[in-house]
Specification:
Layout (H helix, E strand, L loop, with lengths): L4 H12 L6 H15 L4 H13 L6 H5 L4
Amino acid sequence: MANISPYLTELENEIHQVPAEFLPLLLSIVKSYRQSLQLMSAEDSFKQGWQETKQGETYPLADLWEDID
């Protein structure tokens, strides 16, 4: 495994430069990024998609092809 210490040090330095009022947003961004790296199981992915569909969180098929060229 690679030595992550230099990355943690650099990340900590960057975080210390962020104004305190923006830390909640930064935390949200980091959590979202970490969660995006984790693949859901097929079952969980289907459940989420089905729930979104039932809630009307869908797009017309034509919109999905818009600007594809």
